[in-house]
Recover the amino acids of this structure.
DNA sequence: GTTTTTATTGAAAACGTTTGCATGAAATGA
DNA sequence: TCATTTCATGCAAACGTTTTCAATAAAAAC
C-alpha cells in the first residue's frame, strides 16, 4: 500500500494524499476527501515507507522520526548478561516511550570494530544514541565520523576519560565508600575481588585503604571477571591464605553471590568471620543467605535520566560536555559486621 | 557522499560505480576504474544509503540485507528482566553473526497493540523474525498483515496454540517431570508457586499429581507472578498453613530463590523439612544456599537453534509448521530430598 | 461586474540507489 | 575482411515519498 494506491482509489493526486497524511495546516484538502483518505489509511493499515521518507528528507531531517538507539558495550561490564542490562533497557525504553520515541538496540564489542554494524547503525534512521558502558574513545570518534550529520549522543556509565555528555554513578566514590564502610567496622585485612584494570571502583578501594594508613595487600587483591563463578573461586583462594582477610569488597553482586557460597562451602560464617559487601543491589541480593549488604546504584534512574538527557539534547541542541552524577548509597543488610579479631 | 559524487569525481557514470560496488560478476568495469572507485570508497568511508537501497529493491528483495529481528514479548514470562532474556539475546546474536546476520531488537507488549512499533518493525528492513514468548495469535496475524511481502518468522517458546514454525522446551513435560521427581522422593503434599493461567508447566504439575492418585490441593497452589518477591511471600503463606507441604514446585528459579529465603526466615530447613525445585537453571541457582535443584532448560541452545532455523527458512523458503522440542533435564543439587514424614 | 484574495488541487522534481536496455569498442572466429 | 561474440559503459526508469510551483475555482471585496 502506497500513497499512489490511495490516490488512485480516490481519484485524487498523490500530493493531496501526502499532504493530508502529514497534516500541514488546516487548508490542506477538502474535508470530505480528508475523511475518505483517513478511512482508507485506517482500513488498509497504511504505513508510509520510512525508506522513502528518509531518502527524501535526506540531510535536512526536518520532521523527526523519533527513533533513538542504545549502543551497548558488550565487554565486560556493560555485559549483556548483567542484570544491569535488562533493567537498564527497560527503564530506557519506558522513558523513551513516554516521550514518544522508539528504541532500537545494538550490541557491540567495546571497540566497535565491526564495520558492518556501524553501517547498519549509521543509516538506521536514528536521531540520538545512548552509549552504554566503556567503549573506548577511538570507538566514539569512529562513530562520529560515520555520522557526518551531527549525531546526538549521551553516555551512560562511560569510561573515565569520556569527553561527551554523560550520566553516571561515581564508581570511584563507590569504591571509596564501600571500603571505608568496612574500615569503619574495624576491618583491616580487606580483600578485593573483581576487575582491576581501568576499574575506578578498584582505584577507590586502593586509595581509601591508603588514606586510612593500610597498605593494599597484594595477596588480598584478586583480579578477575565479574561473574559468580569467579567470585566463588576467588574467595576460596583468599580463604586458603594463612592470614585470611576479615572482609571482602566484591566489585559486583554476582561476585559477591559466588563468594557467599564459597564461604559456606569452607564453613566460614558470614558475617561473623567474614564480611562481604557487593555493588549493584541486584534483585537477587536481598534473597541471599545472608542477605547481601551492597551498594545500591540507581539503575532505573540512570536509564531514565540518560533518556531524558538525550531527549533534551535532541530538542535543544548539541553536546555540552556535562557529567551528571547520580547518588548511590549503601544498603546494610546481613553480610557485614564489626570485625571481631580486631 | 553518494554514488553520484564518486562518479563525478572519476568522470564515469553512476551505474558504473554502482556496479563496481555491488560486484556483479567480474566483467563489470575496467580494472583501473574499479581500483580508483574502491580507493575513493575507502578514503571517504562511503556507505550506500540503505534508505535508497530499500526503496529501490522494494518488494523484490533480491539481494539480502541480512537483517533479522527479535521480537520479545514483554509480559510476563518472556520478560525483559528475566535471565532468559539476556542469555537468549546473546546466543541468538552470536549465532546470527556466524551467518553474517545483524540482529535488531524490539520489545513489545504481548498483544503488540502498539501500532507505532509495528510500523517501525515493518519497514525496518528485516528479512526474518524470531518471535519470542507468548504473543497471542491475533498478534501474529496482525503482524503478517503488515508484511504483505511474506515475512519469515520462527517462534521461540511460543504459546501452546502457535501455528508457525517454532522451537521450544516442552513446558508441559517439564511440569510433569519436576512433579514426578518430587513424588518419587516420597512427597505427597506438593505445592506449586507460579503462574497458572495458560501456563503449561502448571498443567503438567496438576496432571502428574492426578496420575499418581493425589488430588491437587487448592491450598497448595499459589498463583502469582514469576519474581523472587512473589516466591518469598508465597512460601511464607504456604508455611503458615496448618498442614504444611513437604515439597514445592517453583515455576522458575527466581521464585525458588525467594522461597528459599522465606524458608530460612521461618526456620524451615531445606531440604530436610522442605524440598524445593525450580526451573531454568539460572546462573545464580548453583550459588544459592542450599544449591537449587532445578530443571535445566537449554537457553543457549534454544536461541542458537531458533536462529539456525530462521536462517534455514530464509534460504529455503516458507513456514512449514514444525515444532522442534529441545531436551531438558533435572539437575539434582541440594534443595530436594526424600520425604521424611511420609 | 470586475478585481483581489483564499481554498483546493495537480504536475513535477528530487532524494540515492539498482538494473534493463542500448551502444560502441575490442576481440574472436571464419 | 566481415560477421560474430564479448566487454565496458552510459542512459533512463523506477522505488515511495515530500514539497515547490502553478493553476484553477470559489469566495470576498471593491
Amino acid at each position: 500500500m502506497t500513497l499512489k494506491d490511495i490516490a488512485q482509489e480516490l481519484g485524487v493526486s498523490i500530493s493531496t494524499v501526502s499532504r493530508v497524511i502529514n497534516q500541514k495546516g488546516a487548508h490542506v484538502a477538502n474535508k470530505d476527501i480528508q475523511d475518505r483518505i483517513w478511512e482508507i489509511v485506517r482500513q488498509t493499515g497504511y504505513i508510509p515507507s520510512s525508506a522513502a521518507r528518509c531518502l527524501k528528507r535526506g540531510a535536512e531531517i526536518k520532521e523527526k522520526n523519533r527513533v533513538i538507539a542504545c549502543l551497548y558495550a558488550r565487554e565486560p561490564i556493560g555485559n549483556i548478561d548483567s542484570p544491569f542490562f535488562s533493567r537498564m533497557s527497560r527503564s530506557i525504553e519506558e522513558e523513551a516511550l513516554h516521550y514518544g520515541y522508539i528504541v532500537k538496540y545494538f550490541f557491540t564489542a567495546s571497540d566497535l570494530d565491526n564495520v558492518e554494524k556501524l553501517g547498519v547503525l549509521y543509516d538506521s534512521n536514528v536521531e540520538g544514541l545512548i552509549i552504554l558502558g566503556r567503549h573506548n574513545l577511538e570507538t566514539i570518534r569512529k562513530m562520529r565520523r560515520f555520522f557526518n550529520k551531527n549525531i546526538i549522543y549521551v553516555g551512560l556509565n562511560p569510561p573515565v576519560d569520556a569527553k561527551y555528555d554523560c550520566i553516571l554513578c561515581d564508581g570511584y566514590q563507590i569504591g571509596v565508600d564501600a571500603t571505608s564502610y568496612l574500615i569503619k567496622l574495624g576491618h583491616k585485612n580487606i580483600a578485593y575481588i573483581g576487575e582491576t584494570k581501568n576499574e575506578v571502583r578498584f582505584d577507590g578501594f586502593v586509595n581509601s585503604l591508603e588514606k586510612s594508613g593500610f597498605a593494599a595487600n597484594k595477596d588480598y587483591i584478586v583480579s578477575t571477571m565479574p561473574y559468580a563463578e569467579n567470585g566463588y573461586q576467588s574467595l576460596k583462594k583468599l580463604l586458603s591464605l594463612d592470614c585470611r582477610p576479615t572482609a571482602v569488597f566484591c566489585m559486583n553482586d554476582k561476585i559477591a553471590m559466588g563468594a557467599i557460597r564459597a564461604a559456606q562451602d569452607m564453613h566460614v560464617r558470614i558475617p561473623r568471620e567474614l564480611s562481604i559487601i557487593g555493588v549493584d543491589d541486584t534483585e537477587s541480593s536481598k534473597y541471599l543467605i545472608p542477605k547481601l549488604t551492597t551498594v545500591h546504584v540507581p539503575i532505573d534512574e540512570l536509564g531514565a535520566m540518560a533518556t531524558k538527557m538525550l531527549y533534551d539534547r535532541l530538542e535543544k541542541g548539541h553536546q555540552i560536555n556535562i557529567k551528571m552524577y547520580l547518588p548511590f548509597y549503601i544498603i546494610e543488610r546481613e553480610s557485614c559486621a564489626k570485625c571481631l579479631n580486631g
Q: What stands out?
A: Residues 12-16, 19, 27-30, 33, 52, 54-59 of chain B lie near DNA strand D (CB under 10 Å from a C1').
